[in-house]
Amino acid sequence: MSSESSDKQKLDDGTIFGIGNPLLDIIAEVPTSFLEGYNLKANDAILAGEQHKDMYEKLLHDYPNHHFVAGGSTQNTMRAATWMLQQPKSCVYMGCVGQDKYQQILHDAATKAGLTLSYQVDSKTETGTCAVMITGNDRSLVANLGAANCFTIDHLDEPKNKEYIEKSKIIYTAGFFYTVCPDAAMRLCEQADKNQQLFCTNLSAPFICEFFGDRLMKTMSYVDFLFGNETEAKCFAKHQLKIDTEDVKEIAKALSDLPKKNAQRPRVVVITQGADPTVLAIAGKDIEEFQVKKPSSIVDTNGAGDSFVGGFLAYLALGKTYAEAIQAGAYCAYECIQQSSCTYPEKPNFDPKTFLA
Q1: How far apart are CA 108 and CA 123, in angstroms?
Q2: In this predicted model, what pLDDT tens digit does every residue of 251-272 receive, in sequence order?
Q3: Would you please indicate which residues are annotated as catalytic (active-site) residues?
Q4: Which neighbouring-strand residues pair with 229?
Q5: Structural domains in the chain?
Q6: Torsion of CA 202, 206, 208, 212, to 10 degrees
Q7: What is catalysed by this protein (predicted)?
Q8: CB 167: neighbour CB atoms within 10 A?
């Protein structure tokens, strides 16, 4: 199915609801001397410290060719789904921001990408930002989570937000949000179970699996769709499942077979492995693998996992098969890694009959 034919399947506004940690990505090409001035290395991915406080303003002032992307894992996924669907307002996104100029820039960038936004605003904390500094084929990331850490569960209780949540068919959050407000994640799980909505989540990073995996495990009985990559899956298996294997297919099956509150909807687990086959495990069924198309060149792998989930959720919302949803996810990731940062061409050109052929 091409992107043109998917346009004819009009989804309701707000079909997909996402909640996470919004960050404004500030992307600029810089010399290596800029990195050295902040003791950074090519391909670093770190949290900002005191020594980085003036870095964001310096990027804006000294590098006029900078550009902005509405970032943060879940927000990336919502942008990818909206791009794949070519249906603005099909995705609603929620998270906490500050009351500053970065918030306005972030709001404008996310709105331009077609998202419906319901940011919580914390007037005491600055909007989260991520400096994406490109040196040749390398990029270094320095994230200041800022207000993203300040989300509170009462934001879910505002009438408009309750309406957004209740109206959605799919609810998604990346694992990073479990570090911020696990109570909100749990509330959304219970909401999804009560109203027959799909609850989807992501292992997101090894440190989430190791240090916050217990929070994710509390929601697991509600999880309909679980995403992750092979490194995250192995870490989760070791620290949370306590199983002694690094076989990704075996781990995916174990994850799919964990107890589930609504047993009539078997859990679906999707584990990506970079250029290696993507693994699909459905509780009670045989494991399947899907080949991945490799681009001739890779510019930046940042956001590839988020993009995969966005493509998958888009096709899940359209009622497509899991095989087509995996191919749609792979296509989004394929396009993402050929762009700088987590961005895409103007329009998708996807046909599951030819993409992996």
Answers
A1: 19
A2: 999 999 999 999 999 999 999 9
A3: 306
A4: 272
A5: 3-21+72-126+146-336 (3.40.1190.20)
A6: 120
A7: adenosine + ATP = AMP + ADP + H(+)
A8: 15
